[in-house]
Amino acid sequence: MENFDFYNPVKILFGKGKIAELGKHIQKDAKILVTYGGGSIKKNGVYDQVMAALKGHKIVEFGGIEPNPHFETLMKAVEIVRNENIDFILAVGGGSVIDGTKFISAAAYFEGDEWDILAKRAPIAKAVDLGAVITLAATGSEMNSAGVVTKAATQEKLSFGSPLLFPKFSVLDPETTYSLPMRQITNGIVDAFVHVMEQYLTYNVNSPVQDRFAEGILLTLLEEGPKAIAAETPDYENRANLMWAATMALNGLIAMGVKSDWSTHMIGHELTAFHGIDHAVTLAIVLPGLLTKLKEQRGEKLLQYAERVWNITEGTDDERKTLAIQKTEEFFQSVGIKTRLGDHNVGQDSIDTISKRFIERGYVGMLPDVATSDVAGILESRL
Ligand code: NZQ
Ligand code: ZN
């Protein structure tokens, strides 16, 4: 196992009815900016619950943060934070609202071009305190310190992060997910699944605790995901288990001491930036191609994954690895995701553009086994 520092200060308020408690976790005299998305929270009662919990606090609102939040939109909220002397920002929504809020929090005190927080990974010296009420189990943003923001003008989707951007607390009430459309439930299952794969399906570093946590999250998603999709009415226990699985998939724990990759995400972000394809769908497209390309290098972990997650014990090494990748893709398809670029009208011209972008950038993920020159071939295998 490699050396690591583990730090995660996010207080988790988990369970039904927990939104009512959030007021206790914000200073009474704080002026709060409540941020949200396109309005789902006004239809499902979450907005009303949040406002009731914040009774007595000074509140300013900023709605309209779009999926894959735009820098341009978020800068309007940054102006509000600066002009209204906001002390605390409460994000209410999915990963886009929480990520957007992390950016607002970091940009408010930033001196210089705020896009440098993403483009140059400029260090963040000070940030506005933030909290979250998550309404979509997927990204883990509620318990990590990272975010992803898109500049619409240039079609760039980039990530950023700072220990100052951990939410002070996050409310995880599984009932908030009851109003999710099927497409977003599916997206959440697949996003969380691929988060685990980015941290688990790399190289053996003798980390049995992390490996079994990772496999436990994958198996939970494989069991609970299809139940959520088949259910005629939402089941509390099912939604609770999915929500906690998604949070645990990306709160840093399973990444400690192991080799993480993130190249599936990096390539996927380009598909969203250029084609607006949902984040999770991009991952379901890229991952099978990436694993096939790395069948030899990552063979040891692929065989472990095949046996422990898919119960594949027979056949040659190559047959078992191939079957595990095939079963992974079939799982994505079984929950309703179209896993080929052709299904989304993406062709060779776009692959060329994306490949060029990586070659100019000079890197893909965090491991040397995926080179910038590999991106074209991985995407071509997914046409
Ligand atoms: O905007 P509203 O009206 O709220 O509707 C949203 C949005 O249209 C809707 N929704 C959310 N909760 C709902 C609901 N509709 C009904 N009932 C509810 N309870 O769902 C739509 C999608 O929301 P969004 O927040 O975009 O989805 P998600 O949580 O999947 O977030 C995706 C974003 O997170 C980034 C992605 O790149 C993408 O930009 N990621 C962030 C990560 C992180 N911070 O660590 C890691 C991830 O890998 C990911 O990259
Ligand atoms: Zn993701």
Question: Would you write up a description of this structure?
Answer:
The chain starts with 10 loop residues before the first strand and ends with a helix. The strands form two sheets. Strands 1-8-5-4-2-3 form a six-stranded parallel β-sheet, with helices on both faces. Strands 6-7 form a two-stranded antiparallel sheet. The chain has helices at residues 40-43, 46-53, 71-84, 95-107, 116-119, 182-200, 208-230, 236-249, 263-275, 279-293, 299-310, 317-334, 348-361, 375-380, and strands spanning 11-14, 31-36, 58-62, 88-93, 129-134, 146-151, 156-161, 169-172. It has 383 residues and is α/β, with parallel strands linked by helices. A hairpin with a 4-residue loop joins strand 6 (146-151) and strand 7 (156-161). 5,6-dihydroxy-NADP (NZQ) is lined by residues 37-41, 44, 67-68, 93-97, 99, 135-136, 138-141, 144, 146-148, 176-177, 179-180, 184, 187, 191, 250, 265, 279.
